[in-house]
């Protein structure tokens, strides 16, 4: 071997710090020689990096990442690119922001030709593509859009019947009826069954009478209520007068259409009190309000009666036998909101990654003595902050695409198993992804230092706007418990010999593996090809989930005897939340792996594999205590995983620029000067008025 | 034993889930019986909780936590409580916010009788008490205060000589000279040695000529520059014309006093270009600007000449031999800013904890079937989010008090060892605490759900204002490297037989321990009294630090041969950052333990011990992978630690209300309706206009 090559090989070996080096080199060599593209001397780090760079084709990536409706996305982008008058300025007061977002929405509908309700009902994937795209214009617009169509529109479509659709659908679509979704109350958010607003049937007049019985029952945070909303679907306890008593019978939570403001002059209607919820941490382009009702009368027809109806005589009827079943059906229809948030959260993560990574590539600070400064992405610490995040954005992209497909399938088939699957999946992905994105936005700001703190560079508004994604449409801590609950149901079913729903089939195998001993050979394997094998990675994720599930079931059973089921659940709550996250992580990994297999471009597959490996190994390393505690992973294997995480982060930073280009966010929408494709500093200086 | 008691004992045993239960009960029993306050039947959880509650005296805590100058804190609070006209509204535009904060500052000085420069020079502890207190009014005010006095004033006092103090000090104190600290440039923040602004001596006129040679050299983020500043201390490379060449000699970075605006009409002076850095993520009450200099001439006397001077003939003189030593001395004097930020960050954490915990106590959601809803702080998940945070706020309080003491000692003695110690300590505590607080602010918002998203409830502004604490006065990632560098210096010294500075003496012992085998008996000990023994906790922290230090030194030596010292450092960067954090955590734990020993009230000590245990064990648990990987902690011991963390969080939530009362933040300054001591919901409803 020539001296130079030897030196390079030694250099690489040094990098890997250990005995694995030789094996890794052998593996790399065989890997590349299989493909006949490499001679030995090309194994140096620089050459590897070049090779990877060569293999990344941003436009292949972009078309892979653009989703099922790239043309719709493009159309939305172009509409706003051509309307700079609608661009949200860097600093804007609440009042002006609300008006601007409303103008953006009306322009989209009236001039942009978007018929959101049609897509929502006929083609959810298209609907979510558009919702994500408008989020790039202004997150407030995405949410205003969601309030009007997913929530207010969705409640009419999903909880109402044909008469409601006939009456309201067109006005919802064309914004003649800007509306609200009035569920949350001052005292009750997560616990919807605890809401206290009442809708009492008055047989005399054939009306419902809506009332706010106490301060805690004030509807709160109602989007569109403070300024623009004319109507609301109000969630209230249906009270039916009993024929043989003076007391009303509480039939549980139902939704009612309640006009709030006059269609003519927009004045607030009698009996209705509206207050402005005021300035928020973010999303100030959305006008949230608080509502109180004082004997507000609505016709009987305004009950959204798909799951329960009241006759002229005050008789209640339903195809569903119990209050709990009706409640579950009612809330179940609203799962689309979660799908939209999970999908939109990935969009926010992509935008933040793009800005942070582009800036980290041009920002230079310090360097070797008497040499040029190096880019901050050349620092191991910066790679550690941003590269696993980039891999997660890719991973989440494929997972949420899968979720949207499953959701569309559910809407098409109404198959019970798919319904259950989509419920748990949307809860889990929404919770996991929005929590991850929220944390990442902080990391992005911090990793971009002072210039990350300029509002124009977007991290502040993205973080503030996105923050509440963790809470609305289901608090993340509550949603993860739903996932855990579903897993436990599946677990029970497994032992009762029943079928598992699709996303959970892995549990059968891994449970068997878990219940047997861990394999001591695998525990110690630390070779490069083994660690990068998706089967090892998936097995590690699924082993952890299976183990957490099994132990959770045992602990719950033990504690229930003494504490009751509620007490036992609370005693194991941290355990259950970890279980849910573990499950979701393995679903994401599985979907990422499947998406890579479907990718036809060989070079792109290679880079995606690196991203997938980093996603998986970084998470295994972050939870290494669990794996070590069970001796699933031996100490030296743990170290090898850590080294590989650092190495993959190092390798990927060489193509990080192309990988964020793959997200396909146009500069003019991204807006952040430090996040542009070129000329960042100059644009940034221009922004504050230097010539 | 009576049946009821037996049942309660079993209940407790059940809680602890394992074999440790009996030992714990024995221990608890002996512990309490020692104090003769308990009979056996009082061992139930409820009784335990009551006991703890009884032992917490908020006013004892409050006086313990109020620092050395409670009267000054009180005076500041009262001044602003009596000036509601100076209160920052929930929504305020940048321009108005800047004016309001300036009014707050001038009122404080002119009417509140605060002579900040006097305290800064004579009694730093008093200065920091006041700076922290004004941060409760508005974080922007705390920073505006810091810019004027610590930075601009500090540069004159610490880098200048008597002539500068005579000329400027009074005007700085009484705000006749609002000033700036112009160090950072567009291209250089952390790497101050890379700044490019020049100050060329002109022997003909006995002046320095200040220039901005290129776009990247634009001074950026300069506080007070956009609106209020009249003068600045400008950091620039001193250029001296060489007698025998046409080239100037670069003497390195020095600070110069440069007038920016006319003292008469506030117009910008010739040759100076000022731009507004614009809207920021937070701190919009501070007016940051960008500066460019075009042949701006200043008299030779305007060089802040404590560490280097230029004679009339253009001869350079200094008591320090090299550019690097002068640079270190110059930057070294600015360490006070870090002390202030660490101290102020704890104040922000206390405010956020107070709001989040008080709300979590009154917020109820869900509950056992057919029973009342329970408070969200009754959930294990909420305890896990907030109780370790509360324990950290207490821990940080004592650590930063210690830092302030050491800083004052340094200022008094100028002892070299103390200087080195304070430098590393202030860097480490600033980085560690501000990162922790930044993360906690997100957790607080998220854990308070929708109502945490109302701007009036403060999490948004606290987070946005505090965010940049992670970056300014030294980027956290850079500061932690300084700590790691200092540790490695100490490590080297140890092996060369020299003395260790005070904060590091533990390394000698633990290094010896580490280099021997871990003790297999201790590895398996999992008893309650052992885990709650501060000696075990500190040993675990110090073992980890010693081990990380030892392995870092070995790795650096190995990599240096091939990669050079810069490359080796970067190759080990994640390792080094972990090392620095580990060290700082052990310093915090040690200071917490010492503070508890000094506390004379026995009952208070008991509660503080619980907080200390939670602080320590939670961190050990979070890093359990490291401990497991070295078998420092056996698997069952790891589980016992986790159980104890959950149990301590559970126990502490019973007294969490009193513990946040101990922070002593008046309701009227805390402002957040959901964080008030009582009547939260009603106040919150009033805020949005309901009667």
From TrEMBL, chains A, B:
Domain Acyl-CoA oxidase/dehydrogenase middle positions: 180-296
Record domain Acyl-CoA oxidase C-alpha1: where: 332-487
Keyword presence, Lipid metabolism: yes
Domain Acyl-CoA oxidase C-terminal positions: 533-680
Annotated GO CC locations: peroxisome
Cell location: Peroxisome
Active site annotation, chain numbering: 473
Required cofactor(s): FAD
Keywords: FAD, Fatty acid metabolism, Flavoprotein, Lipid metabolism, Oxidoreductase, Peroxisome, Transit peptide
Protein's GO biological process: fatty acid beta-oxidation using acyl-CoA oxidase
MF-aspect GO terms: acyl-CoA oxidase activity; FAD binding; fatty acid binding; flavin adenine dinucleotide binding
Binding site for FAD: 184, 223
One Pfam family linked to the record: ACOX
Family label: Belongs to the acyl-CoA oxidase family.
Protein's name in the database: Acyl-coenzyme A oxidase
Lineage, top ranks: Eukaryota, Viridiplantae, Streptophyta, Embryophyta, Bryophyta
């Amino acid at each position: 071997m020539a001296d130079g090559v030897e030196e390079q090989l030694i250099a690489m070996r040094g990098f890997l710090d250990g005995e694995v080096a030789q094996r890794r080199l052998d593996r790399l060599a065989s890997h590349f020689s299989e493909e006949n593209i490499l001679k030995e001397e090309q194994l140096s780090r620089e050459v590897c990096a070049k090779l990877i760079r060569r293999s990344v084709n941003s436009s292949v990536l972009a078309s892979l990442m653009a989703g099922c409706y790239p043309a719709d996305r493009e159309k939305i982008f172009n509409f706003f690119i051509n309307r700079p008058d609608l661009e949200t300025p860097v600093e804007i007061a609440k009042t002006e922001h609300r008006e601007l977002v409303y103008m953006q929405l009306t322009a989209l509908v009236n001039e942009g030709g978007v018929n959101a309700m049609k897509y929502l009902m006929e083609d959810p994937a298209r609907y979510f593509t558009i919702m994500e795209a408008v989020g790039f214009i202004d997150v407030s617009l995405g949410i205003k859009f969601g309030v009007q169509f997913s929530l207010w529109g969705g409640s009419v479509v999903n909880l109402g019947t044909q008469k409601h659709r006939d009456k309201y659908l067109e006005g919802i679509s064309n914004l003649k009826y800007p509306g609200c979704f009035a569920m949350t109350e001052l005292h009750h958010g997560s616990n919807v069954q605890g809401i206290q607003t009442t809708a009492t049937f008055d047989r005399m007049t054939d009306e419902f009478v809506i009332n706010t019985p106490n301060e805690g029952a004030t509807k709160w945070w109602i989007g569109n209520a403070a300024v623009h909303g004319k109507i609301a679907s109000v969630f209230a306890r249906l009270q039916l007068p009993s024929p043989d008593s003076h007391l009303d019978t509480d039939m549980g939570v139902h939704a009612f259409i309640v006009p709030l403001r006059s269609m003519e002059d927009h004045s607030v209607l009698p009996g209705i009190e509206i207050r402005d919820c005021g300035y928020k941490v973010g999303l100030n382009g959305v006008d949230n309000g608080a509502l109180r009702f004082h004997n507000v009368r609505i016709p009987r027809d305004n009950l959204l009666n798909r799951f329960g109806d009241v006759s002229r005589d005050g008789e209640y009827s339903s195809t569903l036998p119990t209050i709990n079943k009706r409640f579950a059906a009612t809330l179940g229809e609203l799962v689309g909101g979660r799908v939209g948030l999970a999908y939109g959260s990935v969009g926010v993560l992509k935008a933040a990654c793009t800005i942070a990574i582009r800036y980290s590539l041009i920002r230079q600070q310090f360097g070797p003595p008497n040499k040029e400064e190096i880019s901050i992405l050349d620092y191991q610490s910066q790679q550690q902050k941003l590269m696993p995040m980039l891999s997660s954005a890719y991973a989440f992209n494929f997972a949420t695409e899968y979720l949207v497909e499953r959701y569309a399938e559910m809407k098409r088939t109404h198959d019970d198993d798919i319904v259950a699957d989509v419920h748990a999946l949307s809860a889990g992905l929404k919770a996991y992804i929005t929590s991850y994105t929220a944390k990442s936005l902080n990391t992005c700001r911090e990793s971009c230092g002072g210039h990350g703190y300029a509002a124009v560079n977007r991290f502040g508004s993205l973080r503030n706007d996105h923050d509440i994604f963790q809470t609305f449409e289901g608090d993340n801590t509550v949603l993860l418990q739903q996932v855990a609950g579903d897993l436990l149901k599946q677990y029970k079913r497994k032992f009762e010999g029943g079928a598992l729903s699709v996303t959970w089939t892995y549990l059968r195998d891994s449970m068997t593996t878990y219940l047997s001993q861990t394999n001591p050979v695998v525990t110690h394997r630390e070779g490069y090809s083994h660690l990068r094998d998706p089967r090892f990675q998936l097995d590690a994720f699924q082993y952890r989930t299976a183990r957490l599930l099994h132990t959770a079931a045992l602990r719950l059973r033990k504690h229930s005897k003494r504490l009751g089921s509620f007490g036992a659940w609370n005693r194991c709550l941290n355990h259950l939340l970890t279980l849910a996250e573990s499950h979701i992580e393995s679903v994401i990994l599985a979907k990422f792996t499947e998406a890579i297999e479907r990718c036809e471009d060989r070079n792109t597959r290679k880079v995606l594999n690196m991203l997938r490996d980093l996603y998986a190994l970084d998470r295994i390393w972050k939870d290494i205590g669990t794996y070590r505690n069970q001796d699933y992973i031996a100490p030296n294997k743990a170290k090898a995983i850590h080294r590989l995480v650092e190495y993959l982060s190092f390798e990927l930073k060489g193509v990080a620029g192309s990988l964020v280009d793959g997200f396909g966010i146009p500069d003019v929408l991204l807006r952040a000067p430090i996040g542009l494709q070129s000329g960042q500093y100059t644009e940034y200086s221009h922004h504050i008025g230097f010539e």
